[in-house]
Amino acid sequence: MPLPPELSALFEAARLARERAYAPYSGYAVGAAVETEEGRIYSGCNVENAAFPQSLCAERVAVAKAVSEGHRRVRRLLVLTEDGGTPCGGCRSVVAEFGSPETEIIVVNVEGHWRQYRLEELLPVAFEMSFVGRPSEPSRGRS
Ligand code: THU
């Protein structure tokens, strides 16, 4: 089934971003694009580093670009990879920070095959803001 037309701008942004992926170590290029509640689109690619742990995932780059431009509500995320790989756990948590359980995650491979999830399917029981409430609030999990 082809991607629905309402996702074509998001797909195109992710496709262009993936062409800019900097992945000399893994060879695994990732393009991502987020759509904010206002309908703006921010894209990102993975940016690897010789010090491997300093590498950035494409999804995190896209979210950081949205937030740094003043847009904190993510409605959708589309991720494009060779094989339709799903976002890593860390990126799911980053999306949860600025999304909702209903945030759509669309995973696409280079042949155009795609699957759509809700964030709560990919990250049930997310670690979220309420767990790290103000110091004056009783914290959870402690007596
Ligand atoms: N990568 C992403 O960009 N997003 C993910 O969700 C999973 C992994 C990148 C990190 C690294 O540059 C390459 O893919 C292989 O792990």
Summarize the helices and strands and which ones pair or pack.
Blueprint (H helix, E strand, L loop, with lengths): L7 H12 L11 E6 L4 E5 L12 H11 L5 E8 L7 H10 L5 E6 L4 E5 H4 L21
Parallel strand pairs: 3-4
Antiparallel strand pairs: 1-2, 1-3, 4-5
The structure holds tetrahydrodeoxyuridine.
The site of tetrahydrodeoxyuridine has 13 residues, from helix 2.
Write a structural description.
This protein is α+β, with helices and mostly antiparallel strands. It has a single domain, classed as Cytidine Deaminase, domain 2 (3-Layer(aba) Sandwich), CATH 3.40.140. The chain is 26% helix and 21% strand. It contains 4 helices and 5 strands. It has helices at residues 8-19, 58-68, 89-98, 119-122; strands spanning 31-36, 41-45, 74-81, 104-109, 114-118. The termini are far apart. The structure holds tetrahydrodeoxyuridine.
In short:
The protein is 26% helix and 21% strand. It is an alpha+beta fold and 143 residues long. It is globular, with a radius of gyration of 16 Å.
Secondary-structure class: alpha+beta
Overall radius of gyration = 16 Å
Q: What portion of the residues fall into strands of 2 or more residues?
A: 15-25%
User: What shape does the CA trace take?
Assistant: globular
- Ligands and ions found: tetrahydrodeoxyuridine
Determine the fraction of residues in helical runs and give it as a percent range.
25-40%
On the 0 to 100 scale, the average pLDDT is 94
SSE order, one letter for each helix or strand: HEEHEHEEH
